[in-house]
Design brief:
The chain has helices at residues 21-30, 58-66, 75-88, 99-110, 124-132, 160-170, 194-206, 218-228, 237-246, 272-285, 296-308, 312-330, 349-352, 362-374, 383-386, 406-421; strands spanning 45-46, 92-96, 116-119, 136-139, 178-181, 211-214, 250-254, 265-269, 344-348, 376-377, 379-381, 394-398, 429-433, 444-447. It has 449 residues and is α/β, with parallel strands linked by helices. The protein has 2 domains: 21-50 and 311-447, Aspartate Aminotransferase, domain 1 (Alpha-Beta Complex); 58-308, Type I PLP-dependent aspartate aminotransferase-like (Major domain) (Aspartate Aminotransferase, domain 2), CATH 3.40.640. Helix 5 links the parallel strand 3 (116-119) and strand 4. The radius of gyration is 22 Å and the shape is globular. 50% of the residues are buried. The structure holds pyridoxal-5'-phosphate. Residues 51, 98-100, 123, 125-126, 181, 185, 214, 216, 254, 256-257, 265 line the site of pyridoxal-5'-phosphate.
């Protein structure tokens, strides 16, 4: 059989709430045309993020009931520790309430003012946590990644020659660690090849620089390696993931992505001294080292999710279903970032709406129009989010894991194609109110005439 189906059936359902066009228009006015400010009950299909929005399995809900809420030394912790050790091979693992807490602890221990931390592309919380220590976060993506239309297999890779030049120019002693984000979220959910991880590891090892993986979407990355990189076609996703982790000296992880959990994360390291300092900080803000800001039931849900996510049937469905949305709009004339990534489709709003200049926020205008037309929530990743530093004007449609069926996605495709058919009539926006930082969460807009 060639038809790829959702590899699950539905036991518990959550009703969706339809709104009328008049109700949506009122929601938009009340929210100042910022979709973050619209109550979730007024959204029909929510593609704001794939973070913490996964559907948990029967196995995970059973694990929740088994959760041991002992303050110290809970069974749940030891179950997660065993799963994480088997998967990653790292000597130390501390749980955190989400990925950014792991980042804050890691960089507080490793970074000082004047330090530099290179990555293929830092995620926004990663960059913010590095810069908060006074260190500098440097992105070194491969040059081909800048072309949104180039259809390459591993556009998430790091530019290894640029890493060598950075080390030569700045000195290895100023680089306390290097990172690789897999998959490369800010770079469009594009994968990183095993060859690239190996090459980066070799350079780092030669200079005594530890390599950390930002491993939020490690399983999606492993699947892309299996499908696209010669030599891995008959490897299990787990074996590929184990090899990826074996090349790192530690990792940060948000369990809200590839562990199907609604909250949680962890930080791993092979360095005993670093791990001791991390544990000391963990106690200060997160909690005792065997729960680290989470309930026992969360630890158990994460442990089960980490095993489920490596199921080949799930990963095949996941990557194929994201590509389904991408191909169905791109092949009918909607410009997307090519090729489709693992967790999201990005529409190139500047290309789609050339009559709206960046200062009038084409990505935001498109997000507003898609909500107005069909009740779909997406998010702008462009000049609203990054101001003058924005390199592209994108609209991200993130796909929650195991949540929407193909008919939901067909509805999204139809809505996007209808909006595309009358795109010339979409107008830009201006900001009428904004906070001093992270303005995309709370800014208010006004449509231009
Ligand atoms: C989500 C994410 C983070 C941060 O994790 P949170 O759980 O949201 O704090 C870090 N890096 C990447 C690549 C992410 O996608």
């Amino acid at each position: 059989m060639r038809t790829i189906i959702e590899p699950f059936r539905i036991k518990s359902v959550e009703p969706l709430h339809h709104t009328t066009p008049e109700e949506r228009e009122r929601c938009l006015v009340d929210a100042g045309y910022n979709l973050f400010l619209i109550p979730a009950r007024d959204i029909l299909i929510d593609l704001l993020t794939d973070s913490g929005t996964s559907a948990m399995s029967t196995g995970q809900w059973a694990a929740v009931m088994r959760g041991d809420e002992s303050y110290a030394g809970s069974d749940s912790f030891f179950r997660l520790k065993a799963v994480a050790a088997d998967l990653t091979g790292f000597r130390h693992m501390i749980p955190t309430h989400q990925g950014r807490a792991a980042e804050r602890i890691l960089f507080t221990v490793m970074c000082k003012p004047g330090h530099i931390v290179p990555s293929n592309t830092h995620f926004d919380t990663t960059r913010a946590n590095i810069e908060f220590t006074g260190a500098r976060a440097v992105d070194l993506p491969v040059p081909e990644a800048a072309d949104t239309q180039a259809r390459l297999d591993f556009k998430g890779n790091m530019d290894v020659a640029a890493l060598e030049s950075l080390i030569a120019a700045e000195g290895a002693e100023r680089i306390p660690l290097a990172m690789l984000t897999i998959t490369n979220n800010s770079g469009g959910g594009q994968p990183v090849s095993m060859a690239n991880i190996e090459a980066v590891k070799n350079v780092c090892a030669r200079h005594g620089i530890p390599l950390y993986l930002d491993a939020c979407r490690f399983a999606e990355n492993a699947w892309f390696i299996r499908e696209r990189e010669p030599g891995y076609g008959d490897w299990s996703p787990k074996r590929i993931a184990q090899k990826m982790f074996s090349l790192g000296d530690g990792c940060t992880f948000s369990a809200k992505k590839d562990a199907f959990a609604n909250i949680g994360g962890f930080l791993c390291s092979n360095d005993d001294r670093v791990a001791q300092q991390e544990t000391n900080l963990l106690i200060l803000t997160e909690g005792f080292p065997t729960y680290g800001g989470l309930a026992g039931r969360d630890l158990d849900a994460i442990a089960t999710g980490l095993e489920e996510v490596l199921d080949p049937d799930y990963l095949r469905y996941r990557i194929v279903s994201t590509g389904y949305l991408g191909r169905h709009i791109a092949d009918r004339g909607v410009p997307i970032v090519e090729p489709p990534g693992g967790h999201a489709i990005y529409i190139d709003a500047a290309r789609m709406l050339p009559h709206i200049p960046p200062c009038q926020f084409p990505g935001q205008a498109l997000a507003v129009e898609l909500y107005r037309h069909a009740g779909i929530r997406s998010v702008e990743i462009g000049s609203v989010m990054f101001g003058a530093a924005a390199q592209h004007e994108l609209l991200r449609l993130a796909i929650p894991r195991r949540v929407y069926t193909q008919s939901h996605i067909d509805y999204v495709v139809e809505a996007i194609l209808e909006v595309n058919a009358r795109k010339d009539r979409i107008r830009g926006l201006e900001i009428v109110e904004e906070p001093p930082f992270l303005r995309h969460f709370s800014a208010r807009f006004r449509p231009l005439a």
